[in-house]
Amino acid sequence: MRFERPLLLLTLLVLAAAVALVWWLLRRRRMRYAVRYTNLAVLATVATGSAWRRIIPAALFVAALAALCVAFARPHVDRMVAKERAMVILVVDTSRSMQAEDVKPTRLAAAQEAMLRFVDKAPSRLRIGFVVFAGEAQVATPPTADHELVEQAINEIGQFQVFGGTAIGDALAAATDLAEQSLSEGRETIALRTAPAPAEEEKGLASILFLSDGAQTRGTLSPFEGAQEAKNAGFPVYTVALGTPEGTIRGRFGFGGGGGGAPGPPAPGTPSTPPGFDPDNEVIPVPPDPETLREIAEETGGKFTEARTADVLEDTYEQLGSSLGREPGESEITFIVLAVAGGLLLAAGVLSALWSPRFP
Predict the structure, then answer these.
(1) Quick one: three-class SS letters along the chain?
(2) What is the CATH number assigned to the segment(s) 84-324?
């Protein structure tokens, strides 16, 4: 804890001296009049109240004065504070493999709930962008401090149409471009008021929170190339591999349906379907690809998490929501100390009125 005006803490010594003086005077007064009343038993039956009922209100009053002395010194504490112009780009895989039910109720539904938890825990002025991807990436919402708009996009994730497959590299590039464009617009706004912000100071202002459940199956850029774009821009990528190795879906993968590293349509020359086989009810394994996502996080300076349950996924997003977009700093708590002082004064007054000695 740091105090903006530490010399004012000397008032605590003055308060301590005043309390000691009052205690000494009261003690002398009791000694002086110790024999004024000869029948103490009768006096005890007439006056109600006890010593501790007199002490507690006085102690609360002294504590309130001490809190006021601390408040006058303007206390500050070290805590994580929101960065100016900070942003996070949420990126989520919406390929067919996200319908697997190994993470309840489905991978996609669990991802939606976790992202809503992230938005709820994020600082109110943190700008959040949202990108969905399968075979290609699509911007659902640009970076904005309107968190209700982001929550609406997360809840309506099914309306965003994307081609089948899993284009991890392209999605990373799209998130990087979106963050760079938003920072560039903010830089132009600042330049109208002051000197432009140095590019080096913008490093770390944006982070990418990337969730996928499968290996890359489509796209122009490889996952490593997409990670390099984020690294060059100074954006750490926090990756989450969602799902279990036992995850499966039912159906066939045709155009617009791939994802999760599952096989595509049969190649030319493949033997015909066996009699009695129903391709629309085929059980297709869709395991996640944690190694690729781990390498992306390590390459960009982010952090990798493997989420095999909805609880782990929600905890991960909740923790990231409480940390991303923040940095170590100081926060003044004068108003908190003043509120404590006010509460102590109120309690002292109420208890003093209730417990004051009464005569019949």
Answers:
(1) CEECCHHHHHHHHHHHHHHHHHHHHHHHHHHHCCCCCCCHHHHHHHCCCCHHHHHHHHHHHHHHHHHHHHHHCCEEEEEEEECCCCEEEEEEECCHHHHCCCCCCCHHHHHHHHHHHHHHHCCCCCEEEEEEECCCEEEEEEEECCHHHHHHHHHCHHHCCCCCCCCHHHHHHHHHHHHHHHHHHHHHHHHHHCCCCCHHHHCCCEEEEEEECCCCCCCCCCHHHHHHHHHHHCCCEEEEEECCCCCEEECCCCCCCCCCCCCCCCCCCCCCCCCCCCHHHCEEECCCCHHHHHHHHHHHCCCEEEECCHHHHHHHHHHHHHHCCEEEEEEECHHHHHHHHHHHHHHHHHHHHHHCCCCC
(2) 3.40.50.410
Nearest C-alpha neighbor of 181 from the set 150, 138, 143, 209: 143
The band of 333, judged by pLDDT with boundaries at 50, 70 and 90, is confident
Q: Hunting for tokens 């809840």 — which residue is that?
A: 155
Reported pTM: 0.67
How far apart CA 263 and CA 253 sit, in angstroms, is: 7
Q: What is the mean pLDDT of the chain?
A: 81
Angle at 124 between CA 123 and CA 128, to 5 degrees: 80
Please identify which residue in the block is written with the tokens 């390929």: 95
pLDDT band at residue 98, thresholds of 50, 70 and 90? very high
pLDDT exceeds 50 at position 36: yes
Alpha carbons 353 and 258: distance in angstroms, whole number: 75
Q: Is the pLDDT of residue 264 over 90?
A: no
* Domain extents in the chain: 2-78+332-355, 84-324
Cis peptide before 105 (omega within 30 of 0): yes
